[in-house]
Structures are given as structure tokens and as C-alpha cells.
Amino acid sequence: MARRRKGQAVSGWVNLDKPYDLGSTQAVGRVRWLFDAQKAGHAGTLDPLATGILPIALGEATKTVSFLVDADKTYRFVLEWGRSTASFDREGETTATSDLRPTREEVEAQLGQFIGEVTQVPPNYSAIKVDGERAYDLARDGVDFELAGRTVSIHDLRIVSVLDADHIELEMDCGKGTYVRAVARDLAAALGACAHVSSLRRTRVGPFGEDSAITLEKLEDLSHKAALSEALLPVATALDDIPALAVTAEDAFRLAQGRSIVLLPRQVEALRGRLSGGSRTVCAMEGERLVALAEMRAGSLNPVRVFQLT
Fold first, then answer.
1. How far apart are CA 233 and CA 57, in angstroms?
2. Closest C-alpha to 50, from 75, 80, 71, 33
3. Among 3.30.1360.120, 3.30.420.40, 3.30.2350.10, 3.40.50.300, what is the CATH number of 74-197?
4. Radius of gyration (C-alpha) of the chain in whole angstroms
5. What is the pLDDT of residue 1?
6. Cβ neighbours around 284 below 10 Å, total
């Protein structure tokens, strides 16, 4: 007999506004406990020292995490001039100091080289594995090593405001794998200055933004009122860039069993006009219910991932 899962079969996304000094894994644990959910996961780690958008998947939504990990993100961060640190944030040990304070115009003149497909060397204080060990563990142990550069996409990097002579606030739109602290390191080097990231906030992960974010305090309040469902976003939220196809109840039943369905010629033509980048993946929907992620091939729709939603 199969072992019964502990917790409730709750499914959906929680767009958490993660507080300062809380790890992503801890945040997932808190949210899972509040919902008493059987399964939980998150899309894109956020450092404990950072705040902001941490989408947390519950139940069937965990099947869509991979689609959100690859999503574009937006970060807002403050550079503090005058001190460089080993980790390039305010918690790191000081490695150099300088009296140089770049002006807004000087910073603006350097931003262009960081936009586009660029090669970036991740910080040694990162979760990248080196010979099976986390880079940040090796760095803390004083091990000497170098990380290889990797190509990342930075769509835009702009100045938000100059807070004072010692601090400048910037905003960056980027693809996956881009490190804000590496941008801070390289920008300071280009200016011949010392700097570190004094505050960092993620404001967007794909379709999840600040407008729909909720704090832990608010979640706890909703829990006390037995109203947590108000904070739960649909499983399909993470799939907003995948075309939806309406299916009948009969076709939904077949897809849920892992069987293919035959598409009408008009459905095939309509989908071809909406698919992009060579993708064949669509969201099969019965009304508002997500039935399956499926691939269109030779006039048929073949289920790739089925969702048990009611």
C-alpha cells in the first residue's frame, strides 16, 4: 500500500516578498508549514541578505518550477563606494579602500559595456560547485581557486538615483545566472574605484512582480483568519508565455490519462501562429483548469506533464 503523504493537497504559487536575513530554503519551509502543504519548492535562490520576489510553488505547481527558473529577472541594488569586500556585499571582509567617488556621469558612461550578451566571472562566494564543493565553502576556508567566465544576458542596466556621494542605486534586467555582485565588482573596476553591494532587492521573476507579492507577516495574518487561499496564485501563473489551448472535457480526460488527442485543422493553424522560437509546447486548459503541458506534433497533442487539479 502506498504511503499517504503528510499535509494538504494544496496547489498554486505564493509570490513571497522575502524579508532580509532569511534564506530561501527557510522561507519555503515557513510557507509550506503555514499551508500545511504536501510539497513545496522555489524558483530561483535569493541570498539571505537580499529581499524581494521569491516565487514559492506548492503541490502541483512544483511541476512548473523549471519554467520559472529560466525566466528573466529584475534587481534593484545600491552600490556603496569606498570599500571593496571579499564577497562584494556589506558582510564581507574588507579587501581594499579608496577615496574615489565616481559621479553619475562617470558611472553612466561605463554601463553600456555591461549590456547584452556578456562574459561574467561569478563571485567566489557563490553556490557554484568546484570539484563537488560549493565555491562559497572553499572561499570561506581560504582555498585558492578561480571560476570560469560564463555568458549571461543583461537586457538593461540603468541608474535609478544617486542617494548621496557614497551611494548610487541601479536597476538591472537580466537572464538567469547573472550575479549582481559580479556586476558591482566589474563596474567598480572599470571606474578604478572600490565598491560593494550594500542592499539588494529582486523586484521581478518572470510574471511575478511586486504588485502581487505578499509578506510572511501578511501570510501569517491570513492563516489566523483561515484565509490563506487569498494568497494562492494559479499553477498556470508560471506558464504565462506558453500559449493556451481550450480542450473539451472528453479531451481533458484523455490527456489526464497520458493519452494523445487529435487536433482539428483550425486548431493546428491557430497554434502555429502563436508558437514562437521553435517551441511546440502549449497549455491544455479545460475552462480555467490547467490539464496538461503538451506538445503539438503531426496534428496531435501529446501530454508531457499532467496536472492533478480540480
1. 9
2. 75
3. 3.30.2350.10
4. 23
5. 46
6. 23
Where helices occur in 129-264 by DSSP H, the ranges are 135-140, 180-191, 216-224, 249-256
Selecting among 17, 47, 89, 186, the annotated active-site residue is 47
- Looking at every residue in the chain, the average pLDDT score rounds to 92
Q: In the chain, where are the structural domains located?
A: 12-71+208-237, 74-197, 242-306
Average pLDDT estimate for 268-281: 77
- Is there a catalytic annotation at residue 89? no
174 Cβ contact partners less than 8 Å away, ≥ 6 residues apart: 72, 73, 74, 75, 152, 153, 154, 155
pTM of model > 0.85: yes
Instruction: List the CATH code of the domain at 242-306.
Output: 2.30.130.10
Cα four-point dihedral sign 31, 32, 36, 37 = positive
Q: Tell me the pLDDT tens digit for each residue of 166-220.
A: 999 999 999 999 999 999 999 999 999 999 999 999 999 999 999 999 999 999 9
Distance CA 224, CA 216 (A): 12
